[in-house]
Amino acid sequence: MIGTVFRSSDVSAEDRFDYWRELTNRTTAPSDLSSYHAADFWAEQRLMRLGPVTVWPTSFLPARFRRTARMIRQSDPEEYHLSLVLGGSGLGFEHVGRTDIYRPRDLWFSDTSQPYEVLPPDSQERRVLTGVGLEFPKVLLPTSPERLRPLLGRRLSGEEGAGALLTEFLTGLSRQADALQPSAAPRLGDIVVDLVAAWFAQILDAEADLSPETRHRVLTEGIRAFIRQNLHDPELTPPLVAAAHHISVSYLHRLFQAEGVTVAATIRHQRLERARHDLADPVLLAVSVRDIAARWGFTHPAAFSRAFRAAYGLPPTDYRHQAQGQGQAQGQGQGQGQDQAQVAAQRQAPAAAQNPAQVQAQTLAA
User: What is the pTM of this model?
Assistant: First the structure.
């Protein structure tokens, strides 16, 4: 597991906002925090240290963040900050003379050496905001601060190009945090910075600033994203992947050899993982094993069964029966306790039922 988790429900009600404010100011450059909901606050946050990079998926009731010139004089970590908005709308951001409103899949970029203000929506409703924060030292980006200045305080889209890769990677880190090993943290931090550098270079037409290593890692991550998005296609093969990225098949294989895996093995493993997840899902119990296999690109049921058994030690049908049986037993043993826990959670955060971050926290990208 990577990171530590804070839940406001673990703190007494009168201390929740103060505790969260202190935690946030230890995570990022200190700022003045206030909230209309301070007396009955709700928040969840995971803090992931990836070498010199900090990533923090978070969900919280609307709050205002204000970093002043005086605060900068008192403490400046000399970092860049990125915020990715995932849930909630109407969030405002003021920085270096620019003001804009941010909605899901938007990002803002800021400099801890410059004042800023994050403005909550005008409404005083208990609507939970969700997102991912990112901090890293300025010196890690190859592009000069002067060239980056036009991006500060500007609303950036996380739905296209290298921005979409960064968005997927950040949400993926949050989803997989419990399964990741601490030894992988520094490498994951390198990938995050490379994706940011490549994205900014793309926007500024400054690709010449990127090192060969950065280009290599960004290309590899783009290929991995392409594979994840096309697992359902039976024609997803190394030649197709190479053609989609305008590289030779031999160069594609060299990229993955550096990771200690093959392209074909990567595709097969991810298909099997998606099929395994579906087989254990009670919602899909009426869907045949054959159809689940076909859904993830396996066109020959016998070949799928052999590959599944080799990977997980059971034929897919037996695995499904075992997974469904365990799920039913756990459900029977925990039913009343879960009902009570759900009631308690609703009392602590009335908006939680509409909180997209609760889904995000459970499903960050495979």
Answer: 0.72
List the 64-67 sheet strands across, edge first.
Answer: 32-34, 64-67, 116-119, 91-95, 98-102
Length of the chain: 366
Phi-psi region at 297: left, alpha or beta (left = phi > 0; alpha = psi -120 to 50): left
Cα atoms in the 13 Å half-sphere on the side-chain side of 165? 24
Average pLDDT over residues 107-132: 90
The residue among 88, 217, 107 whose CA lies nearest residue 159 is 107
Closest by Cα among 247, 159, 140, 161 to 204 = 161
pLDDT of 95-107, one tens digit each? Answer: 999 999 999 999 9
Of the listed ranges 9-13, 178-182, 338-342, the least confidently predicted one is 338-342
Structural domains for the chain: 4-170 (2.60.120.10), 273-362 (no CATH)
**SS3 label, residue 137:** strand
Q: Contact, 118 vs 65, CB < 8 A?
A: yes
